[in-house]
Amino acid sequence: MDYMDEKVKNDLSSRILMALVLMTFCIILLRESAGFMDPKAKYFSRHVLGVTHVLVTGGAGYIGSHAALRLLKDGYRVTIVDNLSRGNMGAIKILQDLFPELGRLQFIHADLGNAKAVNRIFRENAFTAVMHFAAVAYVGESTVEPLRYYHNITSNTLLILEAMARHNVNTLIYSSTCATYGEPEKMPITEETPQFPINPYGKAKKMAEDIIIDFSKTTSMTVMILRYFNVIGSDPEGRLGEAPRAELHEHGWISGACFDAGRGIIPGLKIRGTDYKTPDGTCIRDYIDVTDLVDAHVKALAHAQLGKLGIYNVGTGQGKSVKEFVEACKRAIGKDINVEYLSRRPGDYAEVYSDPSKIRRELNWTAQHTNLQISLQIAWRWQNSHVNGYGPPTIVS
């Protein structure tokens, strides 16, 4: 009798164990199915007729967040991926508040240098197109930390391309730069101007371009490469702006330095290089308003055709010197700024401005916000009302 009881107990234990295994398996299947997913996530995991789902890499950054805002306003579905090393969670929260509807916007905190994470993002989301903004982007910093730039720009772009190919995402709008041209002998710069970058930032971007172009020749992928010039300005309605980390201000763009001087955060503005072969000795640049820049990206997406490769300069076609920029900034903020003149910054070039005729001809795009002072006034309003940028960085678990 004892023997039979033991046999029954063992049989019962086996059945219970089998039931637990089956239950666990069923739970895993349910979690993988759309019906058990986060209600928000399921909207992004499937293609919907008439809905264009755009992955915006670096969408928590200055340019990427403005692009995401424009896409959302125009009815696109947007997924932002950002590791927040340079971006701001505050910008994401503003976009989430503006577009709270299910299936409009999702944010994924991830590093694009992690191949497994990138592949998972593409596997779990049904993207139509990618706007690839994510990149470290300071010329001076690139000369100090070149390997970081090659990893972040070139290697990460390669991972994005591999994931796009693996998951049949066939449209790429690539954020590139005039730094790929280096210091051309002739102005203005056209898309046919030879590319001889002179700093690691420009070299890393050109390498990424070369990889993209070579890959596009072997596939039906649609690629639009936008080489843009010096970006200024902010959202005219005052929702988004430029807010780099405090430790990056030394490497940052001149507009941010002007505003910091105007707000008394720094004692004055440092101008690097006054002995260039230009009319007033300072560098000449083509300053493009961020509103115009994101408009170029949206037009590039709208004109994307299967198998087409498009390369475009995005600028105003007008060169302004650093001294002219500083004077416009003084007028924009309504106060004087102390200016200190220093030696040249490594990796800089004397004169760069665009010939935007190709993008005007092929994409029907022309810069609309070409008054330097007005663009700076709009950006100054945001800076002045956001003394701490988007606030302290948010810790993401």
Concise overview:
The chain is α/β, with parallel strands linked by helices. The protein has helices at residues 2-32, 41-44, 62-73, 89-98, 115-124, 139-144, 146-166, 200-216, 254-262, 290-302, 322-333, 357-363, 372-385; strands spanning 53-57, 77-82, 105-109, 129-132, 171-177, 222-228, 230-232, 269-272, 284-285, 287-289, 309-314, 320-321, 339-342.
Order of helices and strands: HHEHEHEHEHHEHEEHEEEHEEHEHH
The rounded Rg comes to 25 Å
The rounded distance between the terminal residues' Cα atoms is 58 Å
Helical content band: 40-55%
Percentage of β-strand residues = 5-15%
> Uncertain segments of ≥5 residues (pLDDT<50)?
28-37, 393-397
Number of helices: 13
Number of strands: 13
Reading side by side through the largest sheet, how are the strands ordered? 3-2-1-4-5-6-11
Q: Sum up the overall morphology in one term.
A: globular
- Mean pLDDT, nearest integer? 89
Structural class: alpha/beta
Largest sheet: 7 strands, parallel
Organism: Theobroma cacao (Cacao)
Protein name: UDP-glucose 4-epimerase
Transmembrane segments: 12-31, 43-63
Keywords: Carbohydrate metabolism, Isomerase, Membrane, NAD, Transmembrane, Transmembrane helix
